[in-house]
Amino acid sequence: MRTLSAALVLLCACGCASRQVEEHGSLCGLAGGASVNARDFGARGDGRTDDTAAIQRAIDAAAPGRQMVYLPSGTYLCSTLRLRPHVGLYGHSAFTRKANAGAILKLNDPQAACLLDFTEANGASIDGICLDGNGQMGEDVHGVMVGSASYANRMEDDIRVDRCRISGFSGSGLKLQRVWCFMVRHSMIYGNKGDGVWIQGWDGFILDNWLSSNGKAGVGAYAESAAITITGNRIEWNGTAGIEVQAGAYYNITSNYIDRSGGPGIKLTGGHPWGFPELKPCTGVSIVGNTVNRNAAPHWDAPTDDDNSQMRFEYVEGLVCTGNTMAAGADDHGHGIWSPKYGITCRRLTNAVIRNNVLHEGAMVGLLNDLGEHGQNVIISDNPGSLRPPKK
């Protein structure tokens, strides 16, 4: 009898706790004042009311105490919200690949620069929120943005995006301009017109995400960037490349699944960091243990001959590419055009190793497209494989 009574008390307590979490955000918030509820500041989340001012009031109220702002489940129509230092915005993570659920912030302003602005919001975070670009509303509107004007007199940003779905923006899912220290984890970044994650800056982690169906690269870095770890992500069906880095330094690209990009699965080239007029190389990149399949798919602009590859390296110094596997293919169920033309295309490498990769049915025309012009100490060997037989 005592056991049954204890169980009933526990069930009652759990039910009360569940209601309190939905109403107030967290038991931690109830006990210690660690969170505020956006509904208490007038946010409605009914999908009809403009909730920008109400949620911004909640964020501003949380700033002095470095508190969390809780968004109960609902659809909150918003223009740009500006996060504050050490303030978190969180909800219940309940999305799927193609559907928002839980707490949804939905863009309602085509003139906005972004939906969530992390500029000068050191230590800010979002967790369990869906950001909806409302069918790519406006022009070049980003889901999350850091818009720092310079690197001078800066502290680390230390921003975090976790368990979020960021989709349908006319710009990039995340545009991180002159960012210093960031983390993107466990998130779905889907169907944005620009890149999934656009990077200019340093010291970042992109871990365990799904970056899919973005118009440009899944991860794109076209200006100065360095010390970036990209690990354990599924990067698929992006328009120009899975991962593209121009003149970046010290990248760790490991254990990703990269599939059916419109260009190379991984593309490293020289570029013009800091606005230098002369071309600068990519340097110090480790590419290990990735599965790279069916890239250079002709669903977007037809890839150039060099980009018609699983991986493309041009003007790279200090490269290690080993232990990766590559396979050619068509769309799901064998429909469409089979690709890519080449397994690995390379030119102008220095102090580089491309070795012990496996390309079983890895390309349609050639496993290695070595265009030469290399500097010292370049080893390209022991990359066994075969061409994909023509489709019958």
Structure description:
- The protein is mainly beta.
- It has two domains: 171 residues, Single-stranded right-handed beta-helix, Pectin lyase-like (Pectate Lyase C-like, 3 Solenoid); 177 residues, no CATH class.
- The protein has three helices and 33 strands.
- It has an eleven-stranded parallel beta sheet, with no helix packed on it. It has an eight-stranded parallel barrel with strand order 16-18-21-24-27-25-22-19. The chain has a two-stranded parallel sheet with strand order 30-33.
- It is globular.
Topology:
Elements: H1 2-24, H2 27-32, E1 35-37, E2 46-50, H3 52-62, E3 68-70, E4 74-78, E5 81-82, E6 88-90, E7 103-107, E8 114-117, E9 125-127, E10 129-132, E11 142-147, E12 159-162, E13 165-167, E14 174-185, E15 188-190, E16 197-207, E17 210-212, E18 217-221, E19 225-231, E20 234-236, E21 241-246, E22 249-254, E23 257-259, E24 266-269, E25 282-288, E26 291-293, E27 309-322, E28 325-327, E29 342-355, E30 359-363, E31 366-370, E32 378-381, E33 385-387
Parallel strand pairs: 1-3, 2-4, 3-6, 4-7, 5-8, 6-9, 7-10, 8-11, 9-12, 10-13, 11-14, 12-14, 13-15, 14-16, 15-17, 16-18, 16-19, 17-20, 18-21, 19-22, 20-23, 21-24, 22-25, 23-26, 24-27, 25-27, 26-28, 27-29, 29-31, 29-32, 30-33
Which descriptors would you attach to this protein?
single chain, Pectate Lyase C-like, eleven-stranded parallel β-sheet, 10% helix, disordered N terminus, mainly beta, 392 residues, 3 helices, globular
Summarize the model shown.
The chain is mainly beta. It is 10% helix and 44% strand.
